[in-house]
Protein backbone atom coordinates (compact mmCIF):
# COMPACT_ATOMS: atom_id res chain seq x y z
CA UNK A 1 0.00 0.00 0.00
CA UNK A 2 0.98 3.62 -0.24
CA UNK A 3 2.99 4.96 2.67
CA UNK A 4 0.28 7.12 4.18
CA UNK A 5 -0.66 7.84 7.77
CA UNK A 6 -4.40 7.15 7.93
CA UNK A 7 -4.26 7.22 11.74
CA UNK A 8 -3.40 10.91 11.56
CA UNK A 9 -6.23 11.70 9.13
CA UNK A 10 -8.94 9.50 10.63
CA UNK A 11 -10.75 12.18 12.64
CA UNK A 12 -11.24 14.45 9.62
CA UNK A 13 -11.40 11.80 6.90
CA UNK A 14 -15.17 11.74 6.36
CA UNK A 15 -15.66 15.47 5.95
CA UNK A 16 -12.76 15.63 3.51
CA UNK A 17 -14.20 12.82 1.37
CA UNK A 18 -17.79 13.85 0.74
CA UNK A 19 -19.28 12.62 4.02
CA UNK A 20 -22.59 10.76 4.16
CA UNK A 21 -23.87 11.71 0.68
CA UNK A 22 -20.86 10.05 -0.95
CA UNK A 23 -20.98 7.06 1.43
CA UNK A 24 -24.71 6.49 0.87
CA UNK A 25 -24.28 6.61 -2.89
CA UNK A 26 -21.50 4.02 -2.65
CA UNK A 27 -23.50 1.77 -0.30
CA UNK A 28 -26.62 1.90 -2.48
CA UNK A 29 -24.60 0.93 -5.54
CA UNK A 30 -22.92 -1.93 -3.67
CA UNK A 31 -26.25 -3.21 -2.33
CA UNK A 32 -27.71 -3.10 -5.82
CA UNK A 33 -25.11 -5.63 -6.98
CA UNK A 34 -25.45 -8.06 -4.06
CA UNK A 35 -27.80 -11.05 -4.41
CA UNK A 36 -31.01 -10.64 -2.39
CA UNK A 37 -30.10 -13.61 -0.21
CA UNK A 38 -26.91 -11.94 1.03
CA UNK A 39 -27.03 -11.17 4.75
CA UNK A 40 -23.38 -10.73 5.79
CA UNK A 41 -20.39 -9.05 4.19
CA UNK A 42 -16.75 -8.29 4.86
CA UNK A 43 -15.78 -4.67 4.17
CA UNK A 44 -12.07 -4.46 3.34
CA UNK A 45 -10.23 -1.21 4.13
CA UNK A 46 -13.41 -0.15 5.91
CA UNK A 47 -11.82 3.08 7.12
CA UNK A 48 -14.15 5.03 9.38
CA UNK A 49 -16.92 2.55 8.65
CA UNK A 50 -19.05 5.19 6.97
CA UNK A 51 -19.88 3.09 3.87
CA UNK A 52 -20.17 -0.12 5.90
CA UNK A 53 -22.42 1.71 8.34
CA UNK A 54 -24.78 2.64 5.52
CA UNK A 55 -24.84 -1.01 4.45
CA UNK A 56 -25.57 -2.03 8.02
CA UNK A 57 -28.50 0.40 8.08
CA UNK A 58 -29.74 -1.34 4.93
CA UNK A 59 -29.92 -4.62 6.84
CA UNK A 60 -26.55 -6.30 6.28
CA UNK A 61 -24.31 -7.65 9.02
CA UNK A 62 -20.95 -5.97 8.36
CA UNK A 63 -17.47 -7.03 9.48
CA UNK A 64 -14.96 -4.26 8.86
CA UNK A 65 -11.25 -4.87 8.25
CA UNK A 66 -8.61 -2.17 8.30
CA UNK A 67 -4.92 -1.76 9.16
CA UNK A 68 -5.35 1.67 10.73
CA UNK A 69 -6.17 1.74 14.43
CA UNK A 70 -7.26 5.35 14.07
CA UNK A 71 -9.74 4.47 11.35
CA UNK A 72 -11.11 1.54 13.35
CA UNK A 73 -11.60 3.84 16.34
CA UNK A 74 -13.82 6.04 14.17
CA UNK A 75 -15.65 2.95 12.87
CA UNK A 76 -16.58 1.74 16.35
CA UNK A 77 -20.36 1.65 16.66
CA UNK A 78 -20.98 1.93 12.94
CA UNK A 79 -20.29 -1.73 12.14
CA UNK A 80 -21.33 -5.01 13.71
CA UNK A 81 -17.68 -5.91 14.26
CA UNK A 82 -14.26 -4.69 13.15
CA UNK A 83 -10.81 -6.20 13.16
CA UNK A 84 -7.35 -4.81 12.56
CA UNK A 85 -5.79 -6.92 9.84
CA UNK A 86 -4.00 -6.85 6.50
CA UNK A 87 -6.42 -7.42 3.63
CA UNK A 88 -3.82 -9.77 2.15
CA UNK A 89 -4.01 -12.07 5.20
CA UNK A 90 -7.57 -12.07 6.51
CA UNK A 91 -8.38 -13.81 9.81
CA UNK A 92 -11.15 -15.76 8.11
CA UNK A 93 -11.54 -19.40 7.21
CA UNK A 94 -11.49 -20.44 3.55
CA UNK A 95 -14.93 -20.27 1.95
CA UNK A 96 -16.50 -18.50 4.93
CA UNK A 97 -17.63 -15.16 3.42
CA UNK A 98 -20.91 -14.53 1.62
CA UNK A 99 -19.67 -11.28 0.12
CA UNK A 100 -16.58 -9.08 0.27
CA UNK A 101 -16.50 -5.38 -0.59
CA UNK A 102 -13.54 -3.12 -1.27
CA UNK A 103 -14.49 0.49 -1.90
CA UNK A 104 -11.43 2.61 -2.75
CA UNK A 105 -8.81 0.02 -1.82
CA UNK A 106 -7.21 -1.35 -4.97
CA UNK A 107 -6.38 2.13 -6.24
CA UNK A 108 -4.07 2.55 -3.22
CA UNK A 109 -1.92 -0.54 -3.76
CA UNK A 110 1.03 -1.28 -6.01
CA UNK A 111 -0.22 -4.75 -6.90
CA UNK A 112 -3.82 -5.93 -6.63
CA UNK A 113 -2.93 -9.60 -7.12
CA UNK A 114 -2.51 -10.66 -3.45
CA UNK A 115 -5.68 -8.83 -2.43
CA UNK A 116 -7.77 -10.52 -5.12
CA UNK A 117 -6.25 -13.90 -4.26
CA UNK A 118 -7.14 -13.48 -0.58
CA UNK A 119 -10.70 -12.45 -1.39
CA UNK A 120 -11.04 -15.57 -3.54
CA UNK A 121 -9.74 -17.70 -0.67
CA UNK A 122 -12.32 -16.49 1.86
CA UNK A 123 -15.34 -16.32 -0.48
CA UNK A 124 -17.71 -19.26 -0.53
CA UNK A 125 -18.75 -20.71 -3.90
CA UNK A 126 -21.32 -18.35 -5.37
CA UNK A 127 -20.07 -15.51 -3.18
CA UNK A 128 -19.57 -12.02 -4.57
CA UNK A 129 -16.63 -9.64 -4.54
CA UNK A 130 -17.62 -6.01 -5.18
CA UNK A 131 -14.82 -3.50 -5.71
CA UNK A 132 -14.26 -0.05 -7.13
CA UNK A 133 -12.15 0.05 -10.29
CA UNK A 134 -10.59 2.73 -12.49
CA UNK A 135 -10.76 5.34 -9.73
CA UNK A 136 -8.40 7.85 -11.30
CA UNK A 137 -10.35 7.75 -14.56
CA UNK A 138 -13.40 9.05 -12.72
CA UNK A 139 -11.80 12.40 -11.95
CA UNK A 140 -12.05 15.37 -14.30
CA UNK A 141 -13.55 13.30 -17.11
CA UNK A 142 -15.63 15.49 -19.37
CA UNK A 143 -14.37 18.72 -17.82
CA UNK A 144 -12.00 21.27 -19.32
CA UNK A 145 -9.20 19.73 -17.21
CA UNK A 146 -9.51 16.38 -18.97
CA UNK A 147 -7.37 17.15 -22.02
CA UNK A 148 -4.63 18.65 -19.85
CA UNK A 149 -4.48 15.71 -17.43
CA UNK A 150 -4.95 12.82 -19.84
CA UNK A 151 -1.30 12.59 -21.02
CA UNK A 152 -0.18 12.16 -17.40
CA UNK A 153 -2.57 9.36 -16.44
CA UNK A 154 -0.86 5.95 -16.12
CA UNK A 155 -1.65 3.55 -18.94
CA UNK A 156 -2.21 0.62 -16.56
CA UNK A 157 -3.34 0.92 -12.97
CA UNK A 158 -3.60 -1.67 -10.18
CA UNK A 159 -7.36 -1.07 -10.02
CA UNK A 160 -7.93 -1.04 -13.77
CA UNK A 161 -11.06 -3.04 -14.63
CA UNK A 162 -9.21 -5.18 -17.17
CA UNK A 163 -6.40 -5.90 -14.74
CA UNK A 164 -8.73 -6.80 -11.87
CA UNK A 165 -10.89 -8.99 -14.11
CA UNK A 166 -7.82 -10.91 -15.33
CA UNK A 167 -6.53 -11.44 -11.80
CA UNK A 168 -9.97 -12.57 -10.66
CA UNK A 169 -10.30 -15.08 -13.49
CA UNK A 170 -7.19 -16.88 -12.25
CA UNK A 171 -9.06 -17.56 -8.99
CA UNK A 172 -12.41 -18.65 -10.44
CA UNK A 173 -14.00 -15.23 -10.02
CA UNK A 174 -16.10 -14.18 -13.00
CA UNK A 175 -17.71 -10.81 -13.87
CA UNK A 176 -21.21 -10.55 -12.44
CA UNK A 177 -22.31 -7.00 -13.18
CA UNK A 178 -21.22 -3.44 -12.60
CA UNK A 179 -22.63 -0.19 -11.28
CA UNK A 180 -21.76 3.49 -11.10
CA UNK A 181 -22.29 6.13 -8.45
CA UNK A 182 -21.54 9.79 -7.87
CA UNK A 183 -18.64 10.83 -5.66
CA UNK A 184 -20.53 13.66 -3.97
CA UNK A 185 -18.29 16.48 -2.81
CA UNK A 186 -15.28 15.22 -4.78
CA UNK A 187 -15.30 17.67 -7.69
CA UNK A 188 -12.00 19.53 -7.76
CA UNK A 189 -11.10 22.96 -9.06
CA UNK A 190 -8.17 23.53 -11.43
CA UNK A 191 -6.37 25.36 -8.63
CA UNK A 192 -6.77 22.41 -6.24
CA UNK A 193 -5.43 19.99 -8.83
CA UNK A 194 -2.56 22.35 -9.65
CA UNK A 195 -1.58 22.34 -5.96
CA UNK A 196 -1.52 18.53 -5.97
CA UNK A 197 0.64 18.53 -9.10
CA UNK A 198 3.15 20.83 -7.41
CA UNK A 199 3.29 18.73 -4.24
CA UNK A 200 3.77 15.60 -6.35
CA UNK A 201 0.71 13.72 -5.10
CA UNK A 202 -1.07 13.68 -8.49
CA UNK A 203 0.09 13.97 -12.12
CA UNK A 204 3.58 14.79 -10.84
CA UNK A 205 5.19 14.28 -14.26
CA UNK A 206 3.37 17.38 -15.51
CA UNK A 207 5.33 19.58 -13.14
CA UNK A 208 5.10 23.34 -13.04
CA UNK A 209 4.05 23.59 -16.68
CA UNK A 210 0.90 21.53 -16.08
CA UNK A 211 0.14 23.38 -12.85
CA UNK A 212 0.26 26.73 -14.64
CA UNK A 213 -1.90 25.53 -17.52
CA UNK A 214 -4.50 24.30 -15.03
CA UNK A 215 -4.53 27.66 -13.27
CA UNK A 216 -4.94 29.40 -16.61
CA UNK A 217 -8.29 27.70 -17.24
CA UNK A 218 -11.46 29.80 -16.86
CA UNK A 219 -12.79 30.03 -13.28
CA UNK A 220 -9.81 28.22 -11.72
CA UNK A 221 -11.38 28.34 -8.24
CA UNK A 222 -14.62 26.67 -9.33
CA UNK A 223 -14.96 22.92 -8.61
CA UNK A 224 -15.66 20.83 -11.68
CA UNK A 225 -18.42 18.16 -11.70
CA UNK A 226 -18.25 15.37 -9.13
CA UNK A 227 -16.61 12.17 -10.39
CA UNK A 228 -18.61 9.07 -11.24
CA UNK A 229 -17.06 5.93 -9.78
CA UNK A 230 -17.37 2.39 -11.11
CA UNK A 231 -18.05 -0.80 -9.15
CA UNK A 232 -17.26 -4.24 -10.54
CA UNK A 233 -18.91 -7.38 -9.16
CA UNK A 234 -17.10 -10.72 -9.44
CA UNK A 235 -18.75 -14.02 -8.52
CA UNK A 236 -16.87 -17.06 -7.28
CA UNK A 237 -17.61 -20.02 -9.45
CA UNK A 238 -19.71 -22.84 -8.09
CA UNK A 239 -17.92 -26.13 -8.69
CA UNK A 240 -19.75 -29.37 -9.21
UniProtKB/TrEMBL annotation:
<feature type="compositionally biased region" description="Basic and acidic residues">
    <location>
        <begin position="215"/>
        <end position="225"/>
    </location>
</feature>
<feature type="region of interest" description="Disordered">
    <location>
        <begin position="215"/>
        <end position="240"/>
    </location>
</feature>
<protein>
    <submittedName>
        <fullName>Class I SAM-dependent methyltransferase</fullName>
    </submittedName>
</protein>
<dbReference type="GO" id="GO:0032259">
    <property type="term" value="P:methylation"/>
</dbReference>
<keyword id="KW-0808">Transferase</keyword>
<dbReference type="InterPro" id="IPR029063">
    <property type="entry name" value="SAM-dependent_MTases_sf"/>
</dbReference>
<dbReference type="GO" id="GO:0008168">
    <property type="term" value="F:methyltransferase activity"/>
</dbReference>
<dbReference type="InterPro" id="IPR013216">
    <property type="entry name" value="Methyltransf_11"/>
</dbReference>
<keyword id="KW-0489">Methyltransferase</keyword>
<dbReference type="Pfam" id="PF08241">
    <property type="entry name" value="Methyltransf_11"/>
</dbReference>
<feature type="domain" description="Methyltransferase type 11">
    <location>
        <begin position="42"/>
        <end position="130"/>
    </location>
</feature>
Amino acid sequence: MLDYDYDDEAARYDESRGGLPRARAAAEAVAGLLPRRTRTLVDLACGTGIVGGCLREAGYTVLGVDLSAGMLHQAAGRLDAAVRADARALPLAPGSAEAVTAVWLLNLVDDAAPFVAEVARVLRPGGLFVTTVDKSAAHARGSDMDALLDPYRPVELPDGAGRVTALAAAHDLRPHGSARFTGHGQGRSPREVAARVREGSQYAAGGEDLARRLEALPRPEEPRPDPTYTLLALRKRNRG
